[in-house]
Amino acid sequence: MAFLNNNQQTDLKSKGWDVNPDGAYINLYPEDFSGSSWEEICQQINAPVDCSSVTILYFCTKIDENEL
Fold first, then answer.
1. pTM for the full model?
2. SS3 content of the chain, % helix, strand, coil (to 5)
3. Which run of H or E residues covers position 21?
């Protein structure tokens, strides 16, 4: 079962997002980041800075092809 309905998928695709309607997980660990990056990520997702990992469920991605 998809988390995103057809209208949501169509809307996101029209805005340049690569949609994964079923969702996918990504695990983040503090040791994967340097400097204050981990703290900034935790602030953005409202997670405690002293946590040992964060799992994010995401539904779409966008790549800035100008930076490739």
1. 0.74
2. 35, 30, 35
3. strand 18-28
Q: Where are the domains of the chain?
A: 18-62
Q: What is the pLDDT of residues 13-42, one digit of tens each?
A: 999 999 999 999 999 999 999 999 999 999
* pLDDT, tens digit, 9 for 90 and up, residues 42-61: 999 999 999 999 999 999 99
**Alpha-carbon distance values, 60 to 25, 38, 39 (Å):** 11, 22, 23
Range 28-66 burial, b when 16+ CB lie within 10 A, else e: bebeeeeeeebeebbeeeeeeeeeeebeeeebbeeeeee
